[in-house]
Amino acid sequence: MSELSKRSTVYFEPSIHQALKMKAAISQVSVSEIVDEAVRLLISEDQQDLEAIAERNDEPEMTYEALINELQADGKI
């Protein structure tokens, strides 16, 4: 935990907190390190989503109504 330098209070449901404590004990890491890694993964997923959105930015847009009409015209609904 030597690299972690900011403190925050986080509230968990009791069962989640118990699971975190057990995982920390089994893994020989702190609850803080587990939570830090989980947050890093979530932020990484968000970054990947944003990159995917940016890559598709130039694609033409289609309204829901147009999509339904196209599906109906193609006999798919």
Report on this structure.
The protein is an all-alpha fold and 77 residues long. It has one domain (14-73). Helix content is 64%, strand content 0%. The chain contains 3 helices and no strands. It has helices spanning 14-27, 31-55, 64-73. The mean pLDDT is 93. InterPro entries: Ribbon_hlx_hlx. One of its GO terms (biological process) is regulation of DNA-templated transcription. This is RHH-type rel operon transcriptional repressor/antitoxin RelB.
Could you list some keywords that capture this structure?
single chain; 77 residues; mainly alpha; Ribbon_hlx_hlx; RHH-type rel operon transcriptional repressor/antitoxin RelB
Percentage beta strand: under 5%
> How would you describe the shape?
elongated
Which sheet architecture does the biggest sheet show?
none
Distance between the termini: 56 Å
Number of strands: 0
Give the averaged pLDDT, no decimals. Answer: 93
Number of domains: 1
What count of helical segments does DSSP give?
3
| Helix percent band | 55-70%
Rg measurement, Å: 22 Å
Structural class: mainly alpha
In short:
By secondary structure, the protein is mostly helical. The protein has helices spanning 14-27, 31-55, 64-73. The chain has one domain (14-73).
